[in-house]
Amino acid sequence: FQGKGDTSRAGSLTGSIGVKVRKMLPNGDLFVEGTKIVMINHEEYHLYVSGVVRTADIQQDNSVDSSLVADSRVEFTGNGD
Fold it and tell me: For residues 33 and 35, what is the distance between their CA atoms, to the nearest angstrom?
């Protein structure tokens, strides 16, 4: 018997996620944390984000660019096909 096979996968993630302030640090910075679960084509994706945000970096619409989150931790996992 002979066999051959291969597999490949590609993807990208663009979007926004709501977070909660979990702790105010002594210098006034905020430790934030949030999760989001998305279902796409019978696959469940979990996104977890946490990090430290300076209050000066919070925009008028209450958003913060991810490049301004210090000590950030991002986890992107999934289940399904």
Answer: 7
Exposure class string for 2-35: b at 16+ Cβ within 10 A, else e: eeeeeeeeeeeeeeeeebeeeeeeeeebbbbeee
Containing H/E element for 70? strand 70-80
Tokens 């994706």 belong to 45
Q: pTM here?
A: 0.76
Encode pLDDT of 22-78 as tens digits: 999 999 999 999 999 988 888 898 999 999 999 999 999 999 999 999 999 999 888
Residues near 64 by Cβ (< 8 Å), separated by ≥ 6? 53, 57, 58
User: Residue 28: what residue type?
Assistant: G
